[in-house]
Amino acid sequence: MTLCVKIPIKKTQEVKEFLMTKGLIDQRYKPKKEKEHILIPIKKKGVKKEFKYVSYENANVEVKKEKGGIKKRLEGKLTKEEMKRIQRAYDIVGSIAIIEIPKGLERKEKLIAETIFNINKNIKTVLKKAGIHSDEFRTIPLRWVTGKKTKETTAKENKVQLKLNVEKVYYSPRSSNERKRIMELIKPEEEVLVMFSGCGPFTCVIAKNTPAKMVVGVEKNPIGHEYEKENIKLNRLKNAKAILGDVRDMVPKLGRFDRILMPLPMIAEEFLDLALKAIKKGGTIHLYQFINWEEKDKLRKKVRDICAREGKRCRILRIVKSGQFSPKTSRVCVDIKVQ
Ligand SMILES: C[S@@+](CC[C@H](N)C(=O)[O-])C[C@H]1O[C@@H](n2cnc3c(N)ncnc32)[C@H](O)[C@@H]1O
What we know:
Elements: E1 2-8, H1 12-21, E2 32-33, E3 37-41, E4 55-59, H2 70-74, H3 80-85, E5 91-93, E6 96-99, H4 109-119, E7 125-129, E8 142-147, E9 152-157, E10 160-165, H5 176-183, E11 191-195, H6 201-209, E12 214-219, H7 222-234, E13 240-244, H8 247-250, E14 257-262, H9 272-278, E15 279-291, H10 296-309, E16 314-326, E17 329-338
Parallel strand pairs: 6-7, 11-12, 11-14, 12-13, 14-15
Antiparallel strand pairs: 1-3, 1-4, 2-3, 5-6, 7-8, 9-10, 15-17, 16-17
Helix pairs in contact: 5-6
Bound molecules: S-adenosylmethionine.
């Protein structure tokens, strides 16, 4: 409830002018119109006695959607030191914003979350990161801060819809450009394997937007797998399928592919032998890694050594940056042509 002055509509102008000159209007809130009155939110009581037709009332008023980014909107509400530590970037997955509250700013998390909530009308929920990525499924604990209490949403990217629970399944909207890059490389009738497919972003984007004959996703997280199946249906894809299991167990049973994607940058190289066995002659493997960009020659050598060990002739077509993991660490993709 917000303290307001209740003014007969015909008298709005003169009272409003007075309130403005005294700096009494609370600009964070929208005025509320009733049948014969208008309620203007104020910071404190202070209306002239001569305005006999005016009264005070506590009312439910809407918060104004302010302009500007998060930093601008928080100016004056946080100290200079706190402002320095605020992260400009936060992820939006469907209708959910995911924020990171720097240590020491926990008491301000509601204010920060509300500010983000008010930036974009498509944000219905704000969650905060409450831990780090777990090892195996790459998921992260998330805690509700404001808005609708849900962790499930439907993201849109590259002309597909992806339903997921953002806490139970890994998905990064920041990789959508990389998915577009891969999608544009696909040739007609390709058979594509997506190892570590999660809720199916690569699987669905490729199946929907390219002339691929079949796209197969393999995912170990049962919840991720269920969403991948659901997303294949949601996007009405006939040329895609989802398989539940560990790639070590499942991939050897799946035959050979023209293209294999390996989007598990932490440890994907440990599975490169598996991909080299499952790739057709002349096929391409996309291996994701985290590296310091200065050390890309080391990565080239590592890939060449694994290929040699597996008795495969490989050509590294390119190494492309596909994201930033930390200030010094890039997420890269090595495109490998296998002879
Ligand atoms: C970094 S996420 C990528 C998910 C998705 N491809 C994307 O781009 O959003 C890696 C995924 O690999 C899965 N995963 C990890 N080890 C696996 C394995 N041995 N076999 C199958 N899936 C695995 C995790 O559960 C997680 O969903």
